[in-house]
Amino acid sequence: MNKGFYSDKVIEHFRNPRNFGAIKNASAEGVAGNIVCGDLMSLYIKVKKNKAGQEYINDIRFKTFGCAAAIATSSAITDLAKGKTIREALHMDKKDIIDFLEGLPPIKIHCSLLAIDALREAIYQYFKKTKQTIPPELSDVHKRVIEGKMHISKHHSH
Amino acid sequence: MVLELDYHGIAVSTGSACSSRTLEPSHVLLAIGLSHERAHGSLRISLGRFTKEDDIKKTIIILAKVVKKLRSISPVPYE
User: Do the domain assignments include residue B79?
Assistant: First the structure.
């Protein structure tokens, strides 16, 4: 019935998601989306330093409430970001996820952006916690994520 | 849920066909006071003249497993 709507890779990641669950003592957590829109994604990252002294994502896990595409993009981003340096992870964009999943239906493209936002928000929270300079584009993502949450309280008040 | 159930040979929908093109939850479910997570998690299951009691029993068992799996992935707390 859903043949053709989702790629085989999306179905595969939805049915067998990688790296789900929380990380105990995570370095940071990034939450994006909201329940009102039907997609809520939490990404947990554990940051360590590699031999070259660069900070990298040693472990990454997710918890997601949402449709099959939201779960598949969450799973995909953990697969893609694991082992990357923070700098490399910041260069990822939604196209990396869409390509990795061999395409997403147009109505589900926002799920790939949600995963990128959650990752950038996690890195924002990590920079904030470790008192590092926060690049302006990360602050923009943070602002968007917070505005998404404001959207919830507005909806719940009527 | 729809996709997982489909995999097990059970065809259900998330709402009426006339609103299947939108990602919005049912305005009726919201109007009767369901939370957004419940409204987004709703399923519409229809019985046909060829549906047997065993089909219903099988669906209940599989649906419970599917919900348990998806809840284990979800950050939303469940009572």
Answer: no
What size, in residues, is chain B? 79
Instruction: Give phi and psi for A25, each to the nearest 5.
Output: 55, 45
Q: Looking at the complex, does the CB of residue B32 fall below 8 Å from at least one CB of chain A?
A: no
Domain ranges, residue B38: 2-73
- Alpha-carbon distance of B67 to A8, in angstroms, equals 22
Of B40, B70, B72, the CB nearest to A38: B40
What is the total count of domains within chain A?
1
The verdict on residue A3 lying in a domain is: no
Residue A158 lies in a domain: no
Nearest to B74 among A1, A36, A65 (CB): A65
The token pair that represents A134 in the structure block: 């926060």
CB A74 within 8 A of CB A105: no
A60 in a domain, yes or no? yes
Nearest residue of B to residue A19 by CA position?
B73
The tokens of B32 are what? 């009767």
Which 3 state secondary structure label does DSSP give A117? helix
Total structural domains within chain B:
1
CA-nearest of A27, A118, A122, A66 to B76 is A66
Q: What is the CATH number of the domain that holds B15?
A: 3.90.1150.10
User: What ipTM does the predicted assembly reach?
Assistant: 0.84
pTM of the predicted protein model = 0.89
pLDDT in tens, A26-82: 999 999 998 888 899 999 999 999 999 999 999 999 999 999 999 999 999 999 999
* CB-based contact, B69 to chain A, within 8 Å: no
Q: Provide the CATH number for the domain around residue A109.
A: 3.90.1010.10
